[in-house]
Amino acid sequence: MSNQKNNLTTSWGAPVGDNQNSMTAGSRGPTLIQDVHLLEKLAHFNRERVPERVVHAKGAGTHGYFEVTNDVTKYTKANFLSEVGKRTPLFVRFSTVAGENGSADSVRDPRGFAVKFYTEEGNYDLVGNNTPVFFIRDAIKFPDFIHTQKRHPQTHLKNPNAIWDFWSLSPESLHQVTILMSDRGIPATYRHMNGYGSHTFKWVNADGDGVWVKYHFKTAQGIKNLTEEVGTRIAGENPDYHTEDLFNAIENGDFPEWKVYVQIMPLKDANTYRFDPFDVTKVWSQKDYPLVEVGRMVLNRNPENYFAEVEQATFSPGTLVPGIDVSPDKMLQGRLFAYSDAHRYRVGANHQALPINRPRNEVKNYQRDGQMRFDNNGGSSVYYEPNSYGGPTEAPENKQAAFPVSGVADSVGYDHNDHYTQAGDLYRLMSNDERTRLIENIVNAMKPVKSDEIKLRQIGHFYKADPEYGTRIAEGLGLSVPQEVK
């Protein structure tokens, strides 16, 4: 075998006789359709790019591990959290949200923070952001929100009018807007930002007892951000700045690390807490529910191939393991469907079988066929269940924990509609310099908005969060706070 020639082959393994010239009818004749090697090359080339993600299109990914540093077994039976010192391999993808695949890294935008844990009980995906909250709290509004972040259907330009029109008519967005427009809106690098699961999840222990949790990934590198001016300059000089920084840091042995914590809330507290704990536009006060250490995440190995590992990586908050369940969070409930469905469309029905997504333990199920089925498709084994032939069966001990449900089926919102307290608290926590930069960022972002009605409506929300907040923005825009808001 060592003496065998290193032949170029077709995708079906046949040697290629000529890779320089198409087969034609004579030197000037038309190209022949029987040149199957040419047809295959062109057809494959046309399909080399899977559709980019609708959101989080621009991103960078890397491998690493998670190590347990604190015993949390009284809260969850999740196997990868079962003992201090246990390490689980993982893959992380960081990203911007609104921009296309070729957009700049250093724009003002939330950052995706998605982690895939390759556990012994299957993969577990934690699909979060670098902010603890989000703009909306019901998945039914998500397509509309993302439309406002994309391009105008006529001009094909970004549309500040749509962005602020939507936000001004969706006051639940105010908390996230305040974070986005603050210093935290442009992280210096992917290494210098925190990550959050954002949603509320449920941990269940071996006895079936549950608690509500929120995830926090605290960067060991320290939080660093860019000013608007520096971010804009870098966007022009090096639009791949964050991607390059992450790759080079790992390549040079400077492995980024995050300490991982959870907030833990007793199940019964959900009925009495002053904010709805399932509303993703709100945080839980750490004075009420302090951070509990869980472990650390270390990123230490770059991908060998960006497309195979980063572009084809698929994450879903519905990719769960025993001991971790979901909550009634309306945004989370919608994401449980939407994320996996997006991957089935973008990558294919068998995206979970790709090497980057495939669990480290054996998959045993009755799913068959579909595009890009590149394993043995179950061979000749039994392909339905229940069956009499010893095929895999369910494990009742791994059912999700039962929970009570009540109420009238209807299209209803959350019971709590205080969208101003937490945004105002955040504003008041900022230093004078931080407030000034926040105001400047918002004013500059709102100046292109054509409608004074939209500006005034949004100013009203800022004012309700904090009178100084709204007044300074109104002054920056040459407007006055509406009298009815005062």
Short structural summary:
The protein is an alpha+beta fold. The protein has helices at 36-46, 142-149, 160-168, 174-181, 228-237, 241-251, 306-311, 330-346, 421-429, 432-446, 452-465, 467-476; strands at residues 59-68, 87-96, 111-119, 122-129, 195-196, 201-204, 210-219, 257-266, 291-301, 324-325. It contains twelve helices and ten strands.
Structure overview:
- The structure is a single chain.
- The chain is α+β, with helices and mostly antiparallel strands and 486 residues long.
- Among the domains are: 248 residues, Catalase HpII,  Chain A, domain 1 (Beta Barrel), CATH 2.40.180.10; 56 residues, no CATH class.
- 26% of the residues lie in helices and 16% in strands.
- The protein has 12 helices and 10 strands.
- Helix 2 packs antiparallel against helix 3 and helix 11 packs antiparallel against helix 12.
- The protein starts with 35 loop residues before the first helix and ends in a 10-residue tail after the last helix.
